[in-house]
Predict the structure.
Amino acid sequence: MQVYVKLFAGLVQNVPPDILPQGAVRSGTPLPVSLPEGSTLGDLVTHLALPPDKVRITFVNGRARKPDHALSDGDEVGIFPPIGGG
């Protein structure tokens, strides 16, 4: 199955180059990712080699979801790191 992932606030820098498509990928740009059927959001984070401590909020089709959420073909996923501020 294929899902479309948007990585925000520099998370794209953590993804191995062999997973990224040709050319530069910027924060918030949809990235097509192929996964086996039955994969979860946690499986996607692992596949992208994102450090778990760098992933704070995940959305699937606009709704906040936990790592055990099962993904479906065509899902749109947004992944955000912890963001500090004052």
